[in-house]
Design goal:
6-stranded mixed sheet, metal-binding, 25 strands, DNA topoisomerase type I (single strand cut, ATP-independent) activity, DNA binding, 20% strand, zinc
Length: 771
């Protein structure tokens, strides 16, 4: 039996459908889908089974004795044993069952470090039950009949060096991440779900974001003034011009010039020219992510969609550094695919060219081609976001064969009372590649018909007060580009690193903004162990992994070097243990401050009640009991936006798998909730006030007796009682007592999950959970 192993079930199904002489038979082995077919040659039958994995089916970890954070020192993880553990036991069992019967195994996982490692993991499981089985490897860049048939006709060897490079990354990331995360989390007193994550790629990336925010924070804006004039020709058509001193740094000078301007302008000169925009280079992963980000897709979402399009055969493999189409790729044939369908007009225009010469980028590799459309899709075949990405890939592919776009430019020189003004215009005269790829295209800036010496009317003049702006925050696409430039991560991992920073509440928003927790962690690390925050160390390890893949160095040597670097880092940390604890705890406290208490002027901070609920409370408690409710779940991000009415920082709530919830000002939010509750209660029909306690729903003789023992003998006494203390006295829930009080026409608000998506209920200025 010939066993073919692919990376995912969908790839297994498609590859089986391509290779089978007729429809393959779907079967289940140990609860895993497999696809069977037979090939008959020379009266012999060869059974083939195709099975799909689910990415990594085994993982690496430390032995159980290292799991206790409190008892096991973080630095002992550096030299701890690494064990392999099954992630998907069903697939492991299925592989062993199929492997026993196999006479030949073909590894058909994705061709890159990760894919090679996944394939070798599967092969090692099979060899446990069938040590002498023969095996080979197929490599492909698209799941199309042509690409798959060519790959299986040219099987090659498994690249164990490439797999070792992938394995070394797993080990290094585990050891560095686990050891440093444990150390920093313990130092900060942040355990459980609130642990502080640190990593060899994650931390230098976060440092970039924090450093940019610091630049913004220390930036001192410089005021300047701009002067504009709105001009009109004899036909009544208008255009705008700006004073040739684009920025006046002296207001007096700007005012003097502005007052000098009269009602007439003279066109002194017209300078015409041409500007050429060269077509873009083919998409590699970084270029694709950046382009997808510019049309509204996050890096993680863009890659998820691209992976789905690849496994369904619509585009080529999306994880590639290459920006040069290989000679083996029949480019004309790829364009001819689109002679039918929605891109017919564009394909036909390219095929009319005498010669198809694509652009070339600076990076050329041999593993995979740049991303290109592998087959024709209809918009009805795909989801909205999938079509968006597919169309982006198709149009970029076409644009790489197109000519440059040509612009006709015009620069005007004008005079208003001996003050020089200028105006620039441009008109697209030859669309070239922009016809195929219209994203983010600049608009025409057209002038009315003008001639040198024309006299123009000044119909409006403006002097604008402006100030210089701080450096902009990084968008996710820009951040991916910077990570690539600095050697942080790989094409396959950079978007995942950014997603981790979001999920761990280190950053929020897009453009990316760091939280106060980020400042606390990065400031501490940069002060006491800067190695962790700099890209140099990560870049060195990445280069070493490349050398493993090339067979120039053994994996064991790279792992040993990484451990030695980490030991040096821990040496720095241990020398400054007390200072690190102090620095982290002081910095993290800043992340809990919401603003100033309106009652007493002390700080309002995020606090925990005795029962674990969260609320905003005054630092002057118990002298001041001002408080506001907070949602029971989700990570709380204190943003830099401040409420004009209450002076409190706006809050954002992050729940895994959901969109961030911008709660805004917690006091405004609570006031709005109170208003909604009052409106809802006003709609309810008024109930007649009960005459005795036993008239209340759910109060029988036994409960009435308990209430009497607690000193509650009348409806009025019950309405005025403290619900928390009374609930404790008679051993019932606070909610039940409060509902009785409502029935008594009391003043306590009914507990409701609608309070800020499940926040603690508030009585007056004090949360019930903390009362």
């Amino acid at each position: 039996m010939h066993l073919i192993v692919t990376e995912k079930n969908i790839a297994a199904r498609r590859i089986a459908a391509i290779l089978a002489p007729k429809n393959p038979k779907k079967d289940r082995v140990s609860g895993v889908d497999v696809y069977r077919y037979e090939i008959v040659s020379d009266e012999e039958k060869q059974e083939t089974v195709v099975v799909g994995l689910s990415g990594h089916i085994v993982g690496i970890d430390f032995p159980k004795e290292y799991n206790n954070w409190q008892k096991v020192e973080a630095k002992t993880l550096i030299d701890a044993d690494i064990i392999t553990t099954p992630i998907n036991r069903k697939i492991v069992t299925a592989l062993k069952g199929l492997g026993k019967k196999a006479s030949r195994v073909t590894i058909a996982t994705d061709y890159d470090r990760e894919g090679e490692l996944i394939g070798v993991e599967a092969l090692n499981i099979i060899k446990q039950v069938n040590p002498d089985v023969s095996f080979d490897r197929v490599r492909y860049s698209a799941i199309t009949p042509k690409a798959i048939e060519a790959a299986f006709s040219n099987a090659t060897n498994v690249d164990f060096n490439l797999a070792d490079a992938g394995h070394s990354r797993q080990v290094i990331d585990l050891v560095w991440g686990a050891a440093l995360t444990r150390y920093i989390s313990l130092a900060a007193g942040r355990l459980g779900k609130m642990f502080l994550s640190v990593g060899r790629v994650q931390s230098p990336t976060l440092s970039l974001i924090v450093d940019r925010e610091k630049e913004r924070n220390v930036f001192v804006p410089t005021p300047y003034w701009e002067i504009y004039a709105e001009l009109q020709n004899t036909e009544g058509k208008t255009f705008s011009a700006q004073h040739s001193t684009r920025r006046f740094l002296d207001k007096k000078e700007a005012t003097k010039v502005f007052k000098k301007l009269g009602k007439k302008a003279e066109l002194k000169g017209i300078e015409k020219g041409k500007k050429t925009d060269q077509p873009p280079t083919p998409f590699n992963t970084t270029g694709f992510i950046s382009a997808a980000n510019s049309i509204g897709l996050s890096p993680a979402n863009a890659m998820r969609i691209a992976e789905a399009l690849y496994t369904n055969g619509y585009i080529s493999y999306p994880r590639t550094d290459n920006t040069v189409y290989p000679e083996t790729l029949d480019l004309k044939a790829q364009i001819e695919i689109f002679k039918e369908g929605p891109f017919k007009e564009y394909a036909e225009a390219l095929l009319e060219k005498a010669e198809l010469i694509p652009t070339r980028g600076k990076k050329e590799t041999t593993d995979h081609p740049p991303i290109f459309p592998a087959s024709l899709a209809k918009e009805s075949d795909l989801k909205e976001d999938e079509w968006k990405v597919y169309e982006l890939v198709v149009r970029r592919f076409f644009a790489t064969f197109a000519g440059p776009s040509e612009w006709e430019t015009m620069r005007l020189k004008l005079d208003i009372n001996e003050e020089e003004f200028r105006s620039n215009g441009a008109r697209l005269v030859e669309p070239g590649w922009r016809w195929y790829y219209p994203y983010n295209a600049p608009e025409d800036r057209l002038f009315p018909e003008l001639h040198e010496g024309d006299s123009l009317k000044v119909i409006k003049k403006d002097m604008l007060d402006k100030e210089t702006q701080p450096p902009g925050r990084y968008g996710q696409g820009r951040l991916i580009n910077i990570m690539e430039e600095l050697g942080l991560g790989t094409k396959a991992t950079r978007h995942e690193i950014i997603s981790k920073l979001y999920s761990r509440a280190y950053i929020h928003g897009n453009p990316v903004q760091p939280t106060n927790t980020s400042f606390a962690v990065m400031d501490t690390l940069e002060t006491y162990s800067p190695t962790i925050t700099k890209p140099d160390m990560t870049k060195l390890l990445e280069e070493n992994m490349d050398r493993i893949a090339e067979g120039k160095i053994k994996e064991s040597a790279v792992l040993e070097e990484s451990r030695e670097i980490l030991k040096q880092v821990f040496s720095e940390l241990d020398k400054n243990r007390e200072k690190i604890v102090e620095s982290l705890q002081a910095g993290l406290r800043e992340d809990k401050i919401i603003g100033t208490c309106s009652s007493c002027g002390n700080e309002l901070i995020i606090r925990r009640s005795k029962r674990g609920g969260r609320f905003i409370g005054c630092n002057n408690y118990p002298n001041c009991t001002f408080s506001l409710p907070l949602p029971r779940s989700g990570q709380i991000i204190v943003t830099d936006k401040v409420c004009e009415a209450h002076g409190l920082h706006h809050i954002r709530i992050i729940n895994s798998g959901k969109r961030p919830w911008d709660l805004g000002c917690p006091q405004c939010n609570f006031i709005e909730w109170q208003k909604t509750q009052q409106e809802e209660q006003a709609k309810q029909p008024k109930k007649e006030k009960p005459k005795s306690i036993q008239d209340l729903e759910g109060v029988g003789k036994a409960t009435a007796g308990k209430l009497e023992d607690a000193g509650i003998t009348s409806v009025e006494a019950l309405a005025e009682a403290d619900p928390v203390e009374l609930a404790k006295a008679i051993k019932t829930s606070v909610k039940r007592v409060k509902n009785w009080q409502i029935s008594c026409n009391g003043t306590v608000t009914v507990e409701s999950n609608s309070t800020a998506e499940g926040s603690s209920t508030v009585k007056g200025n004090c949360t019930v959970e903390d009362a």
